[in-house]
What does this fold into?
Amino acid sequence: MIRGISWRNFDFILLGAVTLASAFGVVMIRSAIAGNEVLAVSASRQVYFALLGIVLIFILAAIDYRYWLALYRPIHLAILGFLVTLTGFGQTAFGAQRWFQVGVLFLQPTEFAKIVAIIILARYFESTRDHPRDLRWVIGAVLRAAWIIGLILLQPNLSNVMVLSVILGVMLFVNGIQIRHIMIAAGLGALALVTVITLSVLGIRIPFLQAYQQERIVNFVVPDPNDTYGNRYNVQQALIAVGAGGLLGEGYGYGTQTQLRFLKVRHTDFIFAASSEEFGLAGSLLIILMLGVIIWRCIRAAQKARDVAGSMLALGVATLIFFQGSVNIGMNLNVLPVSGLPLPFVSYGGSGLTALMICIGLVESVAMRQKELEF
It folds into this structure.
C-alpha cells in the first residue's frame, strides 16, 4: 500500500496552488465576517480544516490510489448509508436536508459522496477499458453513479446532481462514447432543461425541486426589474460589489457592500464578489489563476497516469473543481442562476474544503505513481 514509495514525482506546484488558494480563502473569510459575533470563529475553523487537509494530502499521496479502488464496495455502501440517513434525519435549510450536526460542526456527506462517485466511475472505466463503446457500456456507467445521484436529488440538492452528471459526461466522452449516444444525451438534457424552465415560468410545481429553486430559475430567465429587495437582491448586491472594486479594489476590509453587510452569504456563496470588491479585477484574476493552475496540474496528472483508473481519478477531480468554480463565479456575475455551489478552496465550509483536500491527495497519489518514460 505504501511500501517503497518515492516522493520524486510529488507535485509541489499543485500543493502550492492549493495552499495559496486556501490561504486566500481564510483571508477573505476573515474580512467578510468582520464584526459578526455569530460567525467570528469561521476564519479560525477554516484554518484548522485547511491544515487538516494538507496533512490528508500527504497521507493519501503516500497510499497507492488503487487501494481505494479495491475498497470501492464498502466505501460505496458506507456513503449510501450516510445519504439515506441524511434524507430522513439530516438538518434542514432552505427546504433541503444536507447536514448532520456533530456538536458545533455540520457535516455534509454529499461533499464526500462526490469523491466516492469519482472512485466508482474510475474503477468502472478501468475494468471496461477493452469493452465495446455500445449502449450497454454507457448504461453501465450511468448505473454506477445513479444511486448516489438519486439520493442527492432527494435532499433535494440539484446543484451537486449537476456536478456529478458533468463528471460522468466528461468521463464518458474521454473514454470514447459514440457520437450518436452523445446526441441522444444532449437531446434529453435539452428537453429536460426546457421543460424545467417552462414549468417554472408558468408556476407549475416540479416534484424534485423546491419552490425557492424554481424561483431562482424564473428570476434568472425572466428577471423582474422592480424586484429590488426580493429574490434578486443578493445578485444585484454582488454586481454592485464587483463593479465597485474596479482594477485594484477598495482595499482589504474596506469593501462597502461587504463590510456594511449589504452583500449576504459573502463568506460562502458570494465570496468571489466580496473578493472582487476589496481586491478588484486583480484579485478576481488571481482567484481564477490559482484555480487554473490546480486544474492544469490535475489534468497533467491524468495525462501521465499509469492506468485508466488513475487518469479518471485525476480527470474527475479536475472536472469537479472546474465546474464548481465556473458555476460559482458565473452566479456572482449573474451569467448563471444562483446555486449553492461554493468557490473551491476559497468559500467557507469545513466539509467542502476537507473533501477537496482529499481529492488533491488522490491526484498526488496518481502523480507519484505515473507511468515510467520509455526510451
In short: Residues 271-304 form the longest helix (34 residues). The beta strands are 91-93, 96-102, 105-107. The longest strand covers residues 96-102.
